[in-house]
Specification:
The protein has helices spanning 5-16, 21-33, 35-47, 53-65, 71-106, 113-134, 140-143, 145-150, 155-180, 186-221. By secondary structure, the chain is mainly α. α4 crosses α9. 36% of the residues are buried.
Amino acid sequence: MHLTLSAAAHRLSAASEPQGGIAGWAAGLVETFGGPGAGAAIALENVFPPLPSEVILPLTGFAASQGVLSIASALFWTTLGSVVGAVVLYGVGAVFGRERMHAWWAKLPLVKASDLVRTEAWFARHGTKAVLLGRMVPVFRSLISVPAGVERMPLPVFVALTAAGSLVWNTVLVMAGYLLGDQWDAVGSYVGIVSKVVLALAVVALAGYVTMRVRSRRRGKS
């Protein structure tokens, strides 16, 4: 039998206190506003990636298990929040635009204008997959919205892909928090490992790219 709303909110807050910081902040939003509070937290997480969805979403699932909100409300509002946050970053990319991107790119060392052209061509071919699957990859789930805006992917397509990918990601983490109950914070540990692996791979790829560019320039000068 579910607890009353006030009792559930009290237990949610008590369970979140040891986590401090972000967990306490997210718990406060969910306790006070329910589904819309969870949606607002996820919208901010999309705009500011350092806010971890692997904390906010499982916590929202735990709140649902305590009767603070329903699973349907949790998934609806968190997915809506994901879309709203993604559209904000899409707008940043669209406003920044291709010309400014090329002007900024030309000032960077070790890169060529042709590199950006090839990147744009790749996104034109694989953009839909990048947006859909990128929503389910830690770290990149937020950043993928910017090139979508720069490339002016049709907004209805972007919103549909973002909603679909976000719904999958949100469902997995919300349901994990719902099923784990008081142990909801364990989800963050596992997702955190995945995030670190993704970041490590990105750093390795960037280091490899820079190394190849340096060697290419040296060979060109010799």
